[in-house]
## 1
Amino acid sequence: MYTIKEVYFTIQGEGFHTGRSAVFLRFTGCNLWTGHEKNRQNAICDFCDTDFVGTDGPGGGKFLDSNELANHVYLKWPSNAKTVPFVVCTGGEPLLQLDDSLIRALHAKGFEIAVETNGTIDPPNGIDWLCVSPKGNSELKILKGNELKLVYPQKAIDPSEYEDLDFDYFSLQPMDNDKLKENTQKTIKYCSLHPHWRLSLQTHKFLGIP
């Protein structure tokens, strides 16, 4: 069974695929935070801004098997679209639930599969686009992928520590908290001084995209 917070069609707002139409498949649960505010202070990752608790989001629910969930995801993709359907598996931490069976089922529906993960769990085979977002004070197990997207600045993290890993693209994204404006300027400055990194902005937030 898969426990899903929400499934919806949108436009990717951040990272390499900014501007690309996608179905977002958000899994419940995370191994770095419970998702409950009462536990945030003691969480390994204490800055997450996503609600991944429960199944009450649009398109959310519990799905008995991979084919049922893949069909549900496919119905969110526009029927008149002439491009390859694109699904972003996110969370929470999607690799707590995403498995070989679901990957096969989504591929059978024609989907290109992207995953956004904190990198602490080994991924199954068959993922088409692997985006890893390291979090401080956690063990990074995924050292190879398509994109490394680092929220900046973070405690106990120096971007230079990741530059020799085997990723195609390196994105630096301002942390969205009460210091967003300051964090954005710091991120712009870091990218300017270290061209290895691309600036990633959460465009969906200021454009009002779900």
## 2
Amino acid sequence: MPKKKKSSILDRVDLNRQLKDKDQYLSLLSELQDRMRRIQTSCYFNHNRVILVFEGWDASGKGGAIRRLREKLDPRGYRVRPIAKPESWEQGDHYLKRFWTKLPPPGAITIFDRSWYGRVLVERVEKLASDKAWNRAYREINDFEKLLTDDGVIIIKLFMHISQDEQLHRFAERLDNPDKNWKLTAEDLRNRERAVDYLEAYEDMLSKTDTDYAPWNIIEAEHKWFARTRVLSKVVNKLEDQLPARPPRLTEAEILAAKQQLGISEGK
């Protein structure tokens, strides 16, 4: 087995962080989801475009976090884009081309469950791209995200981090659950065997594509309740900082005129 590379970023992540109990989880989750719902309304009325990028280890909880994030959202205002390998007709194109058609329109949120970072992750590790191609991709990705943010798009990138012991535990849980064992694929098993290579790829990705306009947010995902609320907290706080606090409201004069037109008397 190759010698493990000493990481400089993920080794510093405190995977022991967790919430006190289920009551704290449910209370915090509800509060954050309500704030997220208001943010979506503001995003729609102010024609903002938001991209949320999820990357992370297999079984790190990306799907569960996305599910809680969108639970109270209007389905007309967001889109989840699960990214798998390119289709046969896409494989001759530049790898970023297929993502241009998946970007959000004004007033919408697009959630990428994996993303264009596949070029420097799975394509690097599995040698689906040449060394020259994936090394060049860090600059290309940074330029791509800079182009989007310069055009007003808000990008929030989240990396879900768990230990190898916790990943093994979650794989075992899936195998023992008839409703979930389909989620454990041959690719998951192969990826686990290449964990050292993926760790090196993750470290390079986090260090080389962490920019002031699209920084990485590392989520301590060892404990699911903490991870889900942590994701929501990161997204909500960043969007509240960058979006108008609320959708436009009618003036008192507009409300009075509308009531008069509708025959609604004051006080009703």
## 3
Amino acid sequence: MLTAAPPPSPAERLARILDDLCKAVAARGPGGFLPIPLLLLVWTRIRRASLRIARLAARAASGKPPIIRRTPRAAPQNPEPQNPASRKPASRLPRRAGWLIGPVPAAGGYASQLQYLLTQPDMIALLDAAPGIDRLLRPLCRMLAVARPKLPPRPKRPARPAPQPPHAPATPPTRDIPRGDRPRAARAPPQFLRRFTRPPYPA
């Protein structure tokens, strides 16, 4: 007797949508509908986001805490000057919402699938358990004109306690003691008295 297979998880459905989207993007390159540099950039972004989403979903399924994003490093104060002619063009995707649907018409169908998936309670629960997935979906939702769901506000981190001032010394510093009451440091006896102050020899 055959048993019904369990339904795919939201992470598996999301990975399937992104994999099909990568195939649709790759299919538009040979005909010249999508320039090769832009095709490679889009395909790489989607594929890399799919792999990172799979890792974050597996981490959330195992019960591990989400990865906290570190504060980015500050830019150097004195960056090295560059020659404007030697600068490479920035590898950035267009910022217009839904720009990928024009050169890749099949992306419209995957956009509707992604929009439906983001309204499901199990997918919203996954985004709440792994906040990094929501950050990875931002550029993908922009290129497909998909509205991201509103997640419940996350609790704020407790503020770090203010550093306590150092404790004052038990005895006041020497400069606050009157000159006549300051303790004098022990001095060595004069040269002609050192022979009388030698320790006695053992019997």
